[in-house]
Amino acid sequence: MLEPQVWREAATQVFFALGLGFGGVIAFSSYNKIDNNCHFDAVLVSFINFFTSILATLVVFAVLGFKANLMNEKCVVENAEKILGYLNSNVLSHDLIPPHVNFSHLTTSDYAEMYGVIKTVKEGSFDQLGLEPCVLEDELNKAVQGTGLAFIAFTEAMTHFPASPFWSVMFFFMLINLGLGSMIGTMTGITTPVLDTYKVQKELFTVCCCIVAFLCGLLFVQRSGNYFVTMFDDYSAGLPLTVVVILENLSVAWIYGTKRFMQDLEDMLGFRPSMIYFYLWKYVSPICLIVLISATVIEMTIIPPGYN
What we know:
Elements: H1 4-18, H2 24-29, H3 38-88, H4 108-121, H5 126-129, H6 136-141, H7 147-158, H8 164-197, H9 202-217, H10 225-269, H11 275-302
Helix pairs in contact: 1-10, 1-11, 3-7, 8-9, 10-11
């Protein structure tokens, strides 16, 4: 919790989840009526996003924990077979095996105890035995990130679910819907301001934007695609997005003026929003964002982005 990287990624996740800085939220809200209760909408969307994130966290770590348990049990079985082989070939003595250990129903704790005894007694030649410690925490630490989470960890875990084909279909159907939802929001952020400013045929312009985006997307489906995904994620998602949000915040709170903005909201809503918003918009948000972007720049200077 004390690492700046954790907070930086958390803030970036909030930007992505709420669609901040992409223009999609502003584009969608431009279609609202003048008396629309945008205060209620903003609070509702924030709470829905919060609870969705909590739910996603529970699901992700439950699946990763399920997978880690399976892999750990597999590790115990494989290494127990190695130990049995060493016992049969007299490489290891039967005296090293605790009397309560039953190889047909070997638990993780029994294996850990047996592993500790063998490691202590055979200290000099232990490495030659090729036994693994089979610690659950090690399996959890191997959990992949980014695209690997969806396409490797989840798919591997779902093969062990009851009715796994059904869950696999539902999982990838969900991914497609998430992708389409994100794309529609982002594309609206591009098309709406252009269509509002210039007399352009909406259908033709939207198709052209989709074709350009599709051609750009081909970069990410090459064999080297994951490298470009990581590079874009490091350079185009975090820092520029934070800069855009800071500029949006400053332009409304300091250039347009928070008092004038509050008056606009009062005219729209019929009541004046809480003064807490005034201080959050004018002071708290810009300071937090500036601290965030400073931490990002310092981290990128000290630890240059890499690809594993």
